[in-house]
Amino acid sequence: MRGHEADGLRVAIAGGSIGGLAAATALRSVGSAVEVYERTPHQMTSRGAGIVVQPSLTALLSQVGAPALPMTRCTHRQYLSPDGGSGALSAMPQRFTSWEAIYRTLVAAFPDEHCHRGVEVTGFDQEPNGGPVTVRLGDGRNAEADLLVCADGWRSAARGRLLPQVAPHYAGYIAWRGTLDESDAPADLVDFFDDSFTFSDARAGGHALCYFIPGAEARTQPGERRLNWVWYVHVDEGPELDEILTDDAGERRAGSVPQGRVAPAVAARMREAAVGELHPRFAKLIAATPEPFVQVILDLAVPRMLFGRVCLVGDAAFIVRPHTAGATAKAADDARALALAAQAWRADFDTELVRWEADRLAGGQAMSHYGLALGRRVAWA
């Protein structure tokens, strides 16, 4: 991996989560001088959601010289019906990780002194015809960059400024999620779900799924892992959705209610519903999970990703359905392609950026359409 060059492309990145760190590590690997600005004042912590490992992610980590990503594995899938019958098995080896494991792996691959936590990008101005971008920061300073990468997530402030008419919209269903430490799980559940990616249809439509992910401190040995589950549930927009998204302190959340903040009555109704909707093993797993959380399923697709020397990446540009298992892979692809364009910094960089946008728009649109098709097949929208 090349270190950053004194005369290399100067890059400012708004957002220090997975999308921002993916771009930061990829661009630094080709010699760019990268500074990351993240409004959260400390490293992010989450017992978070499980993620299916895709080749795009491992290719990025290899390119940037990151430490080994903690992963769990399975050899097959099993499909269950809600009546409790045993399901069909199919051989399908897969690898799994967690949001936290990916984040910490990327943090380890990027110099901490170039990650400015507690400093938010509040605005920007750019000169025409490939001139530098002046990045305004929340601490009152300005930073100058040749490229501003906006990786500030699904509620992107940069997208709101650049494309005010484009906003996420509700897909008509939610994902109940949870993780359970293997050491706290009933032994029969560990045996039942081990070495498999397990699915259960729900009686009212949708489905649930489960697989093992790394546990505390990214441990992957049997006995130290976590069971990760997801249950997709149709919820009409309106009072019912509002109630689910109102946390234990009475605050109506926007896109999710995190672990430990779901209102107890809402969680209790969800657990009760699981008994009638899902295979008994899933209902038992959900009942044993102390702190479930909930995520609203959203759709977003931008018509543009490039605005002179400012670009949108990751969830700031496309929110794809989780059925694709592709959001992290898409962020990795955005980052690797941007690093490829950056290698033309002293040649025809702006032309390469236009090519980057065309490639990544096509990739985002394809994954978005794939997610919509999967949503129609496995859910309701």
TrEMBL record:
Q: Ranges for the 2,6-dihydroxypyridine 3-monooxygenase substrate binding domain?
A: 170-299
Xref: InterPro entries: DHP_3-monooxygenase, DhpH_subs-bd, FAD/NAD-bd_sf
Q: Name one Pfam family in it.
A: FAD_binding-like
Q: State the NCBIfam families in the record.
A: PRK07236.1 (NF005566)
Q: What is this protein called?
A: 2,6-dihydroxypyridine 3-monooxygenase substrate binding domain-containing protein
What organism, scientifically named, is this protein from?
Tistrella mobilis (strain KA081020-065)
Question: Organism classification, top ranks?
Answer: Bacteria, Pseudomonadati, Pseudomonadota, Alphaproteobacteria, Geminicoccales
